[in-house]
Amino acid sequence: MLKLVERFRVRGDSMLPTLSDGVVVTALRVPSVFLRAGMVVVAEVEPDVHVVKRIAAKTSRNTVSLSSDNDTTTSVYCGVDIKTQRVSGVVIHATRPRVQASPNSAT
Questions:
Q1: Please, are residues 64 and 81 in contact by the beta-carbon 8 Å criterion?
Q2: Rounded Cα distance, 107 and 39, in Å
Q3: What are residue 49's DSSP bridge partners?
Q4: Please, which of 10, 30, 71, 93 could form a disulfide with 23 given CB 3.0 to 4.6 Å?
């Protein structure tokens, strides 16, 4: 069963400066007619492999092209058209991971 809201952890630096490694994003599943260029989304690019990318363009009614925010990195998933049904959701919230204080640190 598809979930309406899911959480994913960002891995890597391809979405810097918008999202850094370790950030947890909340993605809301939306109908594909609402997907637009510029939206940050989570997409399932392979079975059980999700990436956080920006929609560069809606290339047809049923496909989008993805891009990274970090111009200094490359991703095999950028510039490739994927079916809108592979978009797991639109990122609606991001939470930085909690930093645990060491025993000697001041608060």
A1: yes
A2: 37
A3: 46
A4: 10
64 close to 57: Cβ distance less than 8 angstroms: yes
Rounded to whole angstroms, the Cα distance separating 38 from 53 reads 10
pLDDT tens readout for residues 39-93: 999 999 999 999 999 999 999 999 999 999 999 988 889 988 999 999 999 999 9
pLDDT recorded at residue 105: 41
Residues 9-38 have a mean pLDDT of 95
Which residues are within 8 A (CB) of 99 and not within 5 positions of it... i.e. 6 or more apart? Answer: none
CA distance 35 to 47: 21
Phi and psi dihedrals of 34, rounded to 5?
Answer: -90, -10
CB 3 within 8 A of CB 50: no
